[in-house]
Prior knowledge:
Elements: H1 16-39, H2 43-49, H3 57-67, H4 70-78, H5 80-86, H6 88-104, H7 108-124, H8 129-135, H9 137-142, H10 149-163, H11 168-182, H12 189-202, H13 208-223, H14 228-245, H15 247-261, H16 267-279, H17 286-304, H18 309-325, H19 332-346, H20 363-381, H21 383-390, H22 395-398, H23 400-407, H24 412-429, H25 437-444, H26 449-455, H27 459-468, H28 485-498, H29 502-511, H30 521-538, H31 542-557, H32 562-577, H33 582-598, H34 601-607, H35 609-613, H36 621-636, E1 639-640, H37 644-660, H38 664-679, E2 683-684, H39 692-720, H40 727-744, H41 765-772, H42 778-791
Amino acid sequence: MPPPPPAAGVAMDFGQNSLFGYMEDLQELIIIERPVRRSLKTPEEIERLTVDEDLSDVERAVYLLSAGQDIQGTSVIANLPFLMRQNPTETLRRVLPKVREALHVAGVEMQLTAAVSFLTILQEESVSTHAYAHSFLQVILLHLEHRDTGVSNAWLETLLSVIEVLPKETLRHEILNPLVSKAQLSQTVQSRLISCKILGKLTNKFDAHIIKREILPLVKSLCQDVEYEVRSCMCRQLENIAQGIGAELTKSVVLPELIELSRDEGSSVRLAAFETLVNLLDIFDTDDRSQTILPVVKSFCEKSFKADESLLISLSFHLGKLCHGLYGIFTPDQHLRFLEFYKKLCTLGLQQENGHNDNQIPPQILEQEKKYASVRKNCAYNLPAMIIFVDPKNFHMELYSTFFCLCHDPEVPVRYTIAICFYEVSKLLNSGVYLIHKELITLLQDESLEVLDALIDHLPEILELMCTGGESSVQENKLSSLPDLIPALTAAEQRAAASLKWRTHEKLLQKYACLPHIISSDQIYYRFLQRMFTIMMTNNVLPVQKAASRTLCIFLRYNRKQEQKHEVIQKLIEQLGQGKSYWNRLRFLDTCEFVIEIFSKSFFCKYFFLPAIELTHDPVANVRMKLCCLLPKVKSTLKIPADKHLLQQLEMCVRKLLCQEKDKDVLAIVKRTVLELDRMEMSMDAFQKKFYEKDLLDQEKEREELLLFEMEQLEKEKQQNDGRPSSDKIFEKKRRDTKTLTQSLPKSIPISVPGPSSSSSSTSKEIKKSKLIRSQSFNNQAFHAKYDNLEKCASKTTAGYTPSVSGLTKNSVLSLTDDSFRTRSASSAPASFSFSPLIPSTSRGTVNPTDPKNSGSKDTQPRKATLKSRKSNP
């Protein structure tokens, strides 16, 4: 076959110019490879880097520090903490002198390594404090004024940590006495800056008379230094000094220096003085605050707009603390002035509108807008403090418009910060929380997932406050004040699902577990439960699928309609437990684990025990392996003698696995599981001392399931009696009469979940009604008590998880439609779909586990449903 002709308009040029171009490209490749060849070591270099293997660690360290290269010396110094732990005496005698010699001519990397190693030795307490001061302190002091700023700061941090543990005499002779000369104007700026930080640390180590006689004169001298950097540095240390010398000396010595520094010509010095004053407000009394500090603060605020924007950033960050500290001394006019100043900062930069692109904006304008956004972010951070400042009762009049602007700010960091503060704001407003309902919806619908992620951290608590605060506290009307909540929640979940941020999606699904306490069972069933099922079957991220599975189980746990419960259980068994994709069958086992955790033992045995153990015949080894790991938990749900027949079936399945399993990995897990099952002690129907707490918790779960079942019956009877004129009065009377009755019932009485004939075998219909009318408010009481326990067992995620599952195709997942979850009408409901136990039969044919047609991918041959076929009567 002839080669294809060249494309039209493209000429194949083999001319001289083209060949020269190729040669130039090859030459560039040679130049690129040349540094790689040069980096290879010659035999002579390798010989010099080789060390005798018979040398001990100390001998090798001494040799490398004496004759090795810099990289080898750096390695020895990095290994110095290990040498000190292994042989401290020899290390101090032989290695440390070599380290001192090497540091005299060392480069930056070795100096930084030495500073870190010295600090590690101090923290690990490898030697005594006296020995450390004798051996290491002089080395640290010697390199404090290194010409490289990074190295100098590293040694200074080490020294400041050493000061914490050294005795007073050592500090005085080795550090404080030399500091007198180091802090003089004749010394370098670097030396005086170091002196400022050391003075701030030394203050807490000495008595008041030593501080007053030897340290405070140095502090005053450095506060009046000719260099603004030194004045600013010393000003920031005044907070530590004030805490060490007490209120009296602070008022007489530190406060005058701060007032003088607040009028300094350098903006950084004024900023340091302002921040120090704010941090020291608690030390000063009311007179000092009103007569001395308040005028300084007012002057600083007035000059901030005219000065550099960096002052505004600091002022906005400290404004909440400032207003809180000066709250008691403000006049009404001053109170209003500071509030207006805060409101002005909240909208700083938003008034400037421009119609051109970012590329056309000058760089200085962009930088200014970033600073303004930082100011608004700090204002959002201080909003809870400002609500306290104005009193939560005045929030609507004073700060609601500001809160609205912050929630709709064009910058994501501002909205992110207000989302973090939303829960605090809700708690402060208390009964007035209904005022910020719309802002909650706005943040839930925010286009940035960072904002959503920040908001959902406390979403259950926020929603509970929304539903119980103010006028919306009535249970029946708990959603009337939040008409847009459900659309906002569903839209937020869809945005998280469409993004690559699966951790946000997982967290949101976990927080949805609070919804039974917030909205009605029908709303959860029609708006959220179907979505959880879809995520379980179609999402590719395992932690997300598990979060959806657990939340679905909680939805099912507190569903108040038995028919809906049976519908969901049927789908779980048919489309997950018996699905054609082995991935779905694995998720069914995850769901079984959550059912064991959340529901009572009898509920699991009634609906999920047989479908779970039938997976011992699964054709995929991974499914059988996962089931084997779950079998101990499955056995823990059995009670003897009531569940003796289920125990026999479990033992039969385990015996079949031992005899017929051919996969060596599965067989190894089966053998370990058999040993664990043999060691397990069975729970009895009657209470046992060793299982008392677990049995008590299980009984409580069973009690709640019974209440939910009978609550539905009572609601149906109430609906049937709605046509009678006195039915409501009778219903309310029974509700009042049963409050004392239910309180007198002993909680330790075992309660069993009724079977199909439980409602007909009740002793007295009237007593049954009166005993359980109180469960009308069950979602508001029982769930809240249990929800905290359920949250402690939330599913774990792996930080390094890769959100992908290989081999999952659209054909391997059964699609679900909204119509499939709609409740069947009474006329079309099959007879087998009553409140009788929905236990699948065990007539499913076994499949050979080693069949090559049924292993290797998620999609295997379709599996037959083992549930009885449900045929509707014509």
